[in-house]
Amino acid sequence: MAQVWNIQDTSSPILLCKLDHTLAVKGIAFCPWAPNLLATGGGSNDRHLRFWHTGTGTLLHETNTGKQITSITWSVSRRELVLTFGFDEESPGTIVAVYGYPRMDVRARAQAKDRRALSAEVSPDQTKIAVATSDGTVRLYQLWEPRRNALRATFSGTGPFSSPIINMIEGLESHNGYIR
């Protein structure tokens, strides 16, 4: 179970919502261009990537990666996120993958035979990822070319939350089929 708390007043935190994870959460990251969009990644017995609206606790989408998710990082300039993987039964050796959001299509993948990703951190310029691996090494992977502009919460169609009701709660208005 993952929980979202308001801790502005540390003497009396307020539980905002519960996110129904029944197994370990190993990776977690807020989307930088849709602040109430949270991605959580399950451990070796779960292996699911889930997307939540933290204002309501609504599960928006769930994808079985077939792999233990050890970290999640959103791009600030693309509608993409990077996952690193530990235990992997489907395609052994994949330790980093870049996915498009919201379709979750794999756009890039890094292989490292006989290694697992333990943790990862994206560089400040968002172009590389450093991955600590199970063989005691740190590996750097080029992710993206530098971009000048960060994304804003403007989406066509159903918006970042895939729900007109949650988009309305977030204050995203629809005009001529575009969310802004």
TrEMBL record:
The keyword ATP-binding does not apply. It comes from the Eukaryota. One of its GO terms (molecular function) is anaphase-promoting complex binding. Keywords: Repeat, WD repeat. It holds the Pfam family WD40. One of its GO terms (biological process) is anaphase-promoting complex-dependent catabolic process. Transmembrane segments: none annotated. One of its GO terms (cellular component) is anaphase-promoting complex. PANTHER family: CELL DIVISION CYCLE 20 CDC20 FIZZY -RELATED, MEIOSIS-SPECIFIC APC_C ACTIVATOR PROTEIN AMA1. This is Anaphase-promoting complex subunit 4 WD40 domain-containing protein. It comes from Australozyma saopauloensis.
